[in-house]
């Protein structure tokens, strides 16, 4: 696989006359932690969905975990890709028991359908829930959880199958300040873990870049504005072009902030 977990070249996604992605060039290496930033409707979710093998590119080449998707067995690849976001949350029945939801991810299912799991799977599911601060919610119904609790449960679920690529779509959206900071701390821990998968996190806000993240991709109207190491990408000029207004960017330690200039 030569260290590349994701490669897109000339990727287009079209729906009718609309170009959701335009000529995207992007490579993610296994030790990299990426944030994808852009305004509403920029194409971030579409980009993640292509990487997750859920949306096919209209044209261009996509390789995931070294496999060109045009020739790959998608069914074999999918368990190696962890994916959490609204697209997953919206498909979870409110009645799903949290532990079942997490453990069934080891089979690529979204909920338990009578299959039996061994003690190692149960222990791993409980350990992941505990690691994401929601261990006490294992027996609760998904529909009874708060927004922040749901997000953490779905991240725990996305890690259940020990993926090589983890894609998180707006994990901090809708969280209060404490919830956001707690999530960022956990994502920073994951980023610093050498055994963790390659990470890609989508966000609208530079304040939500977790410490330890290494790279950024800025996207506007389906086209990549800039992609590379955070220090190079996170300029006022690039962010201004991405969000369509003059932007002042500041860095304090490993945290970023931005406001209109
Ligand atoms: N089937 C479709 N036909 C036409 N346009 C579509 C279709 N699906 C999505 N779009 C458009 O593609 C664009 C990109 O959508 P996408 O969800 O990828 O953006 P996003 O950057 O994730 O946005 P947000 O930050 O608001 O979640 C949007 O303008 C959306 O309306």
Explain the overall architecture.
With 261 residues, this protein is of the alpha/beta class. It has a single domain, classed as Rossmann fold (3-Layer(aba) Sandwich). The chain is built from nine helices and twelve strands. The strands form three sheets. The protein has a six-stranded mixed sheet with strand order 6-7-8-3-9-10, sandwiched between helices. Strands 2-1-4-5 form a four-stranded antiparallel sheet, covered by helices on one side. A hairpin with a 2-residue loop joins β9 and β10. α5 crosses α6. The mean pLDDT is 93. The structure holds adenosine-5'-triphosphate. The site of adenosine-5'-triphosphate has 13 residues, from β2 and α1. Belongs to the ABC transporter superfamily.
Low-confidence stretches: none
> What amount of the residues lies in strands?
25-35%
The secondary-structure class comes to: alpha/beta
CATH level 4 superfamily: P-loop containing nucleotide triphosphate hydrolases
- Give the total of beta strands: 12
Kindly provide the radius of gyration, computed on alpha-carbon positions and rounded to a whole number of angstroms. 18 Å
The rough form would be described as globular
String of helices and strands? EEEHEEHEHHHHEHEEEHHEE
GO molecular function: ATP binding
Protein name: ABC transporter ATP-binding protein
Pfam family, one: ABC_tran
Organism: Nocardiopsis mangrovi
